[in-house]
Every structure is written in structure tokens, then in C-alpha cells.
Amino acid sequence: MRQFTISTTLMGNVTEIREQEAAFHIKCRSGDELVVNVGRETQFQFVQNLDGINRDRYPTPEGFAWSPSQLVKKYIQRGRLVAVQGVYLEDDPNRRLDARIINILHAPDGKFLFEQTHWWLVQIARLADTWLGFLFPNKMTYEIDDFKLYQTNLNIIGLRTDDNLQESSTLSRLIYGLSSAYLLTGCESYLSAARAGVQYQRETFRGLTSDGKHCFWASGKRKTDYSYQLYMTSQNSDDLNTIPLYEQIYALAGLAQYYRITLDWEVLDDIQRTIRTFNDYYLDFESKYGENAFGDYFSHLDYATLSWDNEALGDNQARKNWNSIGDHIPAYLVNLILALEPLPRTCGNFEELQKFLNICKKILHTTSTIIIEQFPDPDSSIPFVNERFFRNWQPDQSWRWQQNRAVIGHNLKIAWNLTRVANYYYFTADKSVAENPEAAEPTKQFADKLMKLADKLGSTMAEIGVDLFRGGIFDTVERHPSNGFPLEFPWSNTKDFWQQEQALLAYLILHGCSNEDETQKQKYLELAQETAAFWNLFFLDQDSKGIFFRVTESGMPIIQGGYGNKGGHAISGYHAFELNYLAHIYVSSYVTKQPFCLYFKPNKNCRQRSINVLPDFVRPHSLQVSRISIDGSDRDDIDPDNFRINLSEKEFQLGSEAEIVVQLKPLSA
Question: Whole-model pTM?
Fold first, then answer.
């Protein structure tokens, strides 16, 4: 090519330093090695968090005089990962990469800056402050009426757009984010906002059936000149005029995370009603998974008939998909089962809670079984799962935009969540061994099956879903490329924020929990670190302290078509907060092995006298309770292997809400 130039980003490990020439070599994940040339205008920048702090603490070499070669000497070290933004030039046979920004990712001691103990705590706090500041300016405590000002659609800097639609599922996702921020920081302001949001969601969007046993959540609400319009059906184009199951599922995301903190019995009651709706209205009773094996759900209901097979549903009639099966696990099941198992000490309704817990465990088992049995393609040469299905589980490869295409993030979301579920069954089997070794073995075998698919997807996506030159995760690709290349993009090679989240969490948990050997686990860690680097470099909006929805392959934000907006149907206070919350837990548990704290505050009217504090589905013997503080007083009698903390009546006297701080200590392998 003659006089070809292009601005690009490259990420790789430094393999050789040519100080006198002001150059160094990097080796990308693809295996390609490139020379990076440093010039007089080249800037060395350190990856920044949303606090905007410059973390350059590299010592200045003796006799340092500013020049490109001296900057290379100061900042570039062999073996370390760097991200280079620059101009690539080609004029056959000559090729050259001129660096304009070199992003430094490590502290002087060689540790990644984003693996420091406070990195993800800072990010979740700044995100929470930003959301609350834009939605409810100049407030520190919140009431239900404040959330009349909530709206789904926010513009590029986070301010309200002209469309004042409130969607219940995006509100719930914001409640999840605020609850997660409280769990990590103990900041009362975040809990106050989450509490008010829960009250507003329940009062505004909850629709109970005449017998009071079922709950349907209205999709949205739009303010009019004199009143408001409540929409029971979805306003999203993919699901227009239907009741899509995934919106009902995500209406529980915030409630479940909030319940973990507060043990609010009214919130649990609405969660139970909603799950009863899943099982009585969306369940395929005639499927091979059995009438009582809750988890085989249709994706949409017709609002007029509350049926899944009405022709008014069009191409959503009698369909099942990834969202209707797999989204139960991360949205509410993990947090709900963590809250209820082991069963809490209660002031009554013990048997009712046991029945409900059993239903949740059936949903977990059946959805996981369906994923490992139905989602992988029968053609072993196809690396991606199928995502949309007819009732009989035949793949639907003609549905609208999806066609026969794979979403990389969904494959990694499966890898992440199957690993979590496998951990749950390993944990369950470990507890059963002493009592009944024969009963424990099938549980362990099921966990092994889950991990097998998780590992397969994690390693396969590393080859075909990860950008091997720049880092980051691609969006949608053709499952059967027709262009003669390994990859074919139906639209563009862009990268979405939520798919980076799925990848980072998948590779962190696979590093910590995979059954593979140490070499493979180290590869997972490297993938996690590269994904974390891409996220922190290119998805954090340093100007408005938010998250970009979509960037180019090189990390430049895309703002056309509304993709620059900070709030919308597909972006709310969920994925980024979920990433902050679980990345902090996973990095602490599996990478740095540093203790971390979680904060709880049971409601003064709660009916439980114990609270479960395990942060996620973890392998047995990976975490211990190392400190419990209640209202500022440390407990002396700690059972480090017991994640159910009993609460005494004195901690509820005078209607007070006890603040509980639990420190968890990771155990070495």
C-alpha cells in the first residue's frame, strides 16, 4: 500500500527496549511484534480512574533530561503491558508506528493500577455520585417523591432528554447499582437512594393480579401535560406491545440486591409474586424438563391474552432465547439464593421460605441444564452458542437483526455465569460429602459439566472474540463467515460497554475457579488484565464521569445515533456497577488475595434474625469471615467458615437499624 496512514491503538507486552533510538518493541496477543517509535510530541499517560488523579509515581532517573530517549528510559520496562495510541504508516516496503500517546498501566512496583485495593471502590462511588447528582441535584438523602424526577433517557453528559419515559427495568437496574455501591462502601446516601427507588418502583410499576398472588411489572411510565401514561407493554422496538420476560426479570435485579442488604420482607414478598408469575405464565409445562422443573421459559407474552402462543406476538410467538433462560442467573437468582441459603433464622414463615428457596434452586438447576444441553451448536466446528429458539429448541436463525449471528458478550456471559453456578454446586457437594458421599458425587459431576462449557467458551472467545491487537471485546459476528476470513462483522468491528463487563468478569472468575491447569489459568488472568486495561482507558468518560456505551475498535467513543447517551433502554446503572462490584470481589479473592469488606443494614421491621454475607457463589474453602462489626462493636465469637451471621434482639431494639460490617479474607490456594 502506498502512503497509507491510519490512527490506531495497539496493546502488547514490551519485549525489547532501544533507548538510544527512542523506540521499543511490543508483542500483541496475536503474536505479532511491532516497533513503537517515540517522538518529541509523544505523551506518556497513566490510566486514570474516575477520580481524575494522575498516578504517575515513577522515579526520575539520575541525570534525567527531557528527550524521547530519556522518557523511554524512565517509563518503559520489559515485560509490562502497555497500550499505544498512534499513527501507523505504510509505504511499501516500509512500515512504521509513531506513538502519540503511550498509556502506562502499572505502578512502579509492577502491579497493575486497576488491581489496587481501592480502584473499583473509587469507580463505583464516582458513578453513583454522578447518577444521583444529575438526577437529583444537591441532595444527600432521598424520598420516594424524588424519583418522580427519575427518567431512563439521559443525554451525552447525563442530563435529561426531552423524552421523560421511566422504564421499570432500568429503574431496577439503577437500584441494583446503588445497592451494590452501598455494599462496597457503606455510604448511607447510596442506601437512602436505593430505598427510595425501591419504594417508587413498587408503588408506580407493580401490578398485582386479583388474587394478590402474582405480580406483573409495568414496562414504563411517561409524563403528560396533566397526568401520566402507564405502559404495561414494552416500548422497545424488539418487544413492542408485548410483555417480554427479560423486562420482568430485570425488574427484580435491584430488589434482590437491596433485599440482601435490608432483609425487607415486603420486597421479598414482591420477588416471590414475580417468580410465581414466571412459573405460572411463562413456563413451558409440556417441555421435556418437566412441569415442576421451573426454568424452561418462553420469552414473550401477549398482553391481551397473557399467553405465549398468540399470533399477535408475531415472530416472538412461542419462542425461547438466551434472555428468557440465562438472564435469571445474574439478574436475581445468585443474590436471592445467597440471601436465603442457609435458611435464615426467622420470626415465622420458615416452611414458606424453604419452599420458595427450593423453587429458586430448581430454576437455577433447570436453566443451567438447558444452557449446557441446548445452547452449544451441534456442529462442533461452530465456536458460538445459539441464542434464539423455537419451542422445541430448534435454533431460530431468521429472527430480525439476530439472524445466524453471535453476540460475543453473550458467550462470555455464559462462561461467567456457568462458572458461578459450578461454584455453587461444588460448594453444595463439599457440604454433603461428610453426610452422604454418594449423593455428593452427582452434584460434583454436574458442576464439572458446567465448568467444561464455561472453559470452552472462555478459551474459544479468547481466539475469536477478543481483539488480538488492541484488546477489548468485539460485538456481533456472523456464525458462518462467508468472506473467507475467521471473522465477519455484519455491521462494524465496534465494542460495547456491557460486553467488556462480561469478558472481564468471565476471565477473572475463570482465573480463580477454572478446573484447568495453572498455565491456562494464567492465560485467563492476562485476558482479564488486558480487558480491564481497555475498559479503564476507553470506556470511562472523564469529562462527565460516566460510561460510554460504544467505542470503535481503537477505543474512540461513538456518539451518533444516541450511542453517546448516558442513559437509555440498554444502558442504566447496572452493567458498570455490576462490573465494579464483582471486579472488586474477584480481584480481591482470586488475584491480590487481599481482605475486603461488605456492608449490610437490616430493616428495623425485618422478620429475620440472621443475615447471609457470602458475596458470590465461590468455591469451597476460598473465603473466610475474619471480622464482624455491628454498630461499631467487633464480635469476639467468629466462626470463620460460617457465612450466616446471627442477629440478637438487642440489635433491633428501639426500632434501630444495625449497621453490619463484615470483613472477608481470601484463602491461599
Answer: 0.98
